Amino acid sequence: MATPQWSKFFPDFYIERLWDKCIKCRRCVSECSYEAHIWDSKKKTLLEDHSKCVGCHRCEAFCPTKALIIKRHPSDFREHALWTPWFIKNIYKQADQGGVLLTSTGCALPYKNYFDHLVLDACQVTNPPIDPLREPMELRTYIGPKPESLEIEEVNGKFRLKKKLPPLIRVEAPILFAAMSYGAISLHVHQGLARAARDLGILYNTGEGGLHASLYEYGPNTIVQCASGRFGLHVDYLNAGVAIEIKIGQGAKPGIGGHLPGEKVTEEISKTRMIPVGSDALSPAPHHDIYSIEDLRGLIFALKEATEYKKLVFVKIAAVHNVAAIASGIVRAGADAVVIDGLKGGTGAAPTMFRDNIGIPIELAISAVDKRLRAEGIRHRTSIIASGGIRCSADVVKAIALGADAVYIGTAALIAVGCTMCQRCFTGKCPWGIATNNPELMKRLPPEVAYEKIYNLVKGWTHEIKEMLGAMGINSIESLKGNRDKLRAVGLTKEEMEILEVKHAGE
Amino acid sequence: MWRLTSNYKEISGCGITGIISRKGELITGEMIIKAICCQYERGNGLGAGFAGYGIYPEFKDYYALHVMAQSRDALEKVEEYLPKRTFVSYQEFIPIRRVRTIKNPPIFKRYFVKPNLECELVDVCNIVSEEDFMVQLVMEINEKIEGVYVISSGKNMGTFKGVGFPDEIAEFFRVDEYKAYIWTAHNRFPTNTPGWWGGAHPFTLLDWSIVHNGEISSYGTNKRYLELFGYKCTLLTDTEVVAYLLDLLIRKHGLPLELACKAMAPPFWVEIDEMPEEERELYTALRILYGGAVLNGPFAILFAYNGGLVGLNDRVKLRPLVCAQKGDLFFMASEEAALRLICPDPERVWAPKAGEPVIVEMEEGTIPNQKSYLKPRPKEEREDALRIGSLPLSLLTGK
Amino acid sequence: MPLELEVFPFHYSQVNKIIRENLKKGEREFILRGVNGHRYLLAGVSADIKVTIYGTPGLDLGAFMRGPVIRVFGNVQDGAGNTMDEGKIVIHGMAGDVVGYAMRGGKIHIYGDVGYRVGIHMKAYMEKIPVLIIGGKAGDFLGEYMAGGVIILLGMHTLYPERPIAGLFLGTGMHGGVIYIRGKIKESQLGLGLKPYPLDGSDEKLLEGYLKEYCEDFGLELSEVLKEDFIKIIPYTHRPYGKLYAY
């Protein structure tokens, strides 16, 4: 007798079929890559396997007669404040399979979200709000190390620079697309991100899976990533973008490396990553050439030397307890930008325990890192790029007021292309064609659609940011940077406010 | 006790006026009083002040400390302290008149001093230049001696300011009896009422004096930027930020005055993108490096020093500023009417463009201890000035 | 005529700059003398050139390079051939830790011993196969995470005749490629799940080809090298951790 599988007994979702509307067209069967809809050819009817439903809502969205509703499974366990269904079902899964719980996206636990406890300021009477539709409003941002002061000389009655600035990256909005690898997401999404980045004058990040040949043309808007697995990493790749990001860690899984499950390593991915088809693409926890901060300096300068100092080198870390001191070391090691990915940062695949329990919220990390770098007098030597849980333009504004130069968005961009946050990216079966390399599923999201949606999202956000800046009475983004005057806390403790360097509302 | 530091940034609207004679001819106090009083509607009686340059010719080489004290006791502490740090050449109470509406004013006294560069302050702070010494001294007094505040400390200049309408303050300090080659004046409309005499304008640092109309929306960013260089913004006024920015950009970083103004009120990127290459590189660099120094929000500022008067507007012209010229005299004010009143037949009246500084410097060699900031200064010449930036914060805050 | 440089007084950045400048002028052969700790030599250089080095190159010799053939007379420090793409590094001496990290192609021939974590993360695709041959002995974690390519460990020219030919955790996490070892190895030295196999005909042919070139580089007798039997280590699955997760 087969061992019973507890986890199959209690599905998360319930597929409700409205038989008065269903025309048995079987669209649901073809849309569901998890095979939750079944066509019974004998009885000529449709069946459901609720246990296979991941709650992606693809069938519901595409059912031509709107005959489907996907809901939480109504079957309940007896209420218990401690032993919620989440823990019970996880234990069932592990008892069944004996493995590490795997999941996707960012932290799902309801820790205090500091963005939601910070409110913004606006002008009333004493200074005028600015109308961004008709008056200039500048979001242009330069990323990279800057000297502390300028050397000016006068030649023929005109002032000019005595020494030119080192190379810096110009972006037209402080919003960049976070590293999501070719492999974790489909080529089409990559193409959409790249094109949107170009048209918006911002940057996208290749992630660690190498770069598809079709994307080299977007070089001026590209950050290439170098992670410990060194997938698809060669001279042309290093020279392809404007910056190279060394990925040390990721907010969704600090302390462990990257993991592209073998299900997603198709022929094309295998070629770019130079690993066997179907093998797990593992980036180990450490870079094995970096066991210490001086080794990081070693890799930073190896990359700079290999690219003749034409590219900026970013270093990305997960926000952990000691983030401020680590960031300081990173700057001193020569990083041109420090990327801090907070507790809420997303992923295509991470052990659930890591996703939900390790790291600190990005808001606190930004403030702590900014404060530390300022106290040490090295803030101008780097840019701070913050990521992890940036959900809307107000989050962007708050992050910058807390001291970030720019932010990365990942999950938000994926939601823009149709993601419904079912958190099953690691299966490679994404029915929306986003987190998959299955050629059939990929077709569901053509690159043009991906481009349009992502472009629209950032366009909307930049306009909102301009409106918020205008309301604050400032007309360029640099006057928001670290401007705690524009933030007030609602419902934070004294300690939290001290770390964030903000006053309470009403103060 | 007086509050030198408060938790609230004060917000105020205002009227401002400035006059300079390029040939260093002396202008009576009556003229500036007339001009600022004409803009009566711009204030609300909660602050007014004047700064005059060239008012102490007999002590031209001494730093003139205008000291405001809450009580005789407090003043005594200063008088114990000053001889330890400086050579006091002469001291007297600042002559005042009784004004019916001004109740319980502080005590004002002035001291003409030279720094004692042998004293312990020099060793502790590793100070070499006289000016750094004076900045340090003023900060020490303001922070450490309770109930006392130095309201100006430049050579051959002085500030007269307090709580009241400009005519009342002028009457109180007998401003009409002074003669100066540069005058600035301020008429204040604060939205909150700290009612503190030291909070009035002009705000000074050495011989820099600033009067300011408007609110700086980027205050939080500017404050944090200045902190990077060791400045502690304790007064929570926008004006303090402007003073420190000028000190940083001009005195420490050696920027020519014009570019320092451009750093504070930069051209827009669309303008920079259209500039010829060399200029574009310069302004791009200026914006990239000095993003923290951008004064964003509405302002019109007049600042003066021994040798010049500068007017500057924010980059979208959210506060008024009008200038006029007659011969060697230049006038700047919030309202044209103020200028017309004291100069009915100007050769030229103009409203400067947003973000374009109006810089009027005196002819070379006109006055004693004259300063000029039109040229960039190379790094070698800035070394001494930079030392103050490296002082430990504890010394600046007095903690 | 090769371009000969005395680089001792120069910073590594200057040395690389000089090489790159002369490369552009058409120079194809370089001799670097007085190398001592210079990091990143030839890093990222994409050209078919010959470089002879006398001395002790520092970190990441030939990192990311595509094409150069480097011959070192001396020992090399850590990270030689880091993520190298094409070309060759011949080392007449010993090499430090993490040699050939994430190597994607080309060859590294080392006369003597190597340190820890050598040949980890090596990759391969179709005909593009990196080859790393070690004449001496290796430390722990040889071929860790190996996804492709060939490592050959000879154990012949060593400072430590008393030690086993390789350290512990050999090939741990290996999911592609092959490691050949001259002589025997204890199973306890291998990464989890790995086993030694005897060579078959096709292995022998491959091995002979690789070793012939190796022997030519160092003036060795191929027959001497082939005197002893080889074993091979290959992954038992291309997904050694596939069952680690509960979905």
Beta content of chain A comes to 15-25%
Strand tally of chain A is 23
Mean residue pLDDT of chain A: 95
CATH topology of chain B: Glutamine Phosphoribosylpyrophosphate, subunit 1, domain 1
Mean pLDDT of chain B: 86
Radius of gyration of chain A: 24 Å
Q: Please, how many helices of chain B?
A: 13
Summarize the structure.
The complex is a heterotrimer of chains A (507), B (399) and C (247). Chain B is of the alpha+beta class. Chain B is built from 13 helices and 18 strands.
Structure description:
By secondary structure, chain A is α/β, with parallel strands linked by helices. Chain A folds into 2 domains: 11-99, Alpha-Beta Plaits; 141-148 and 170-504, TIM Barrel (Alpha-Beta Barrel), CATH 3.20.20.70. Chain A has 16 helices and 23 strands. Chain A has helices spanning 6-9, 27-31, 58-62, 85-97, 187-200, 235-238, 267-273, 293-306, 323-332, 352-357, 362-375, 393-401, 411-416, 439-442, 447-472, 494-500, and strands at residues 13-17, 37-40, 45-48, 68-72, 100-103, 118-120, 141-143, 152-155, 158-161, 169-171, 175-177, 204-205, 222-226, 243-247, 259-260, 281-282, 312-318, 337-341, 350-351, 383-387, 406-409, 487-489, 503-504. Chain A has an 8-stranded parallel beta sheet with strand order 11-21-20-18-17-14-13-12. A 3-stranded mixed beta sheet of chain A has the order 6-22-23, with helices on one face. The model of chain A has no long low-confidence stretch (mean pLDDT 95). Chain B is of the alpha+beta class and 399 residues long. The two termini of chain B are 18 Å apart. In chain B, α7 packs across α8 (257-264). In chain B, 30% of the residues lie in helices and 26% in strands. Chain B has one domain: Aminohydrolase, N-terminal nucleophile (Ntn) domain (Glutamine Phosphoribosylpyrophosphate, subunit 1, domain 1, 4-Layer Sandwich), CATH 3.60.20.10. Chain C has a single domain, classed as 3 Solenoid (Pectate Lyase C-like), CATH 2.160.20.60. Chain C is built from 3 helices and 12 strands; from the N terminus they run βαβββββββββααββ. Chain C has helices spanning 12-24, 201-218, 222-225; strands at 3-6, 29-36, 50-56, 66-73, 86-91, 107-110, 131-134, 147-153, 176-182, 196-198, 230-233, 245-246. Chain C has an 11-stranded mixed beta sheet, with helices on one face. In chain C, β1, α1 and β2 (29-36) form a beta-alpha-beta unit. The longest helix of chain C is centred in the C-terminal third of the chain and has 18 residues, at 201-218. Classes of the chains: A alpha/beta (507), B alpha+beta (399), C alpha/beta (247). At the A-B interface, β8 and β9 of A face α6 and α10 of B. β5 (100-103) of chain A pairs parallel with β12 (245-246) of chain C, so a sheet runs across the interface.
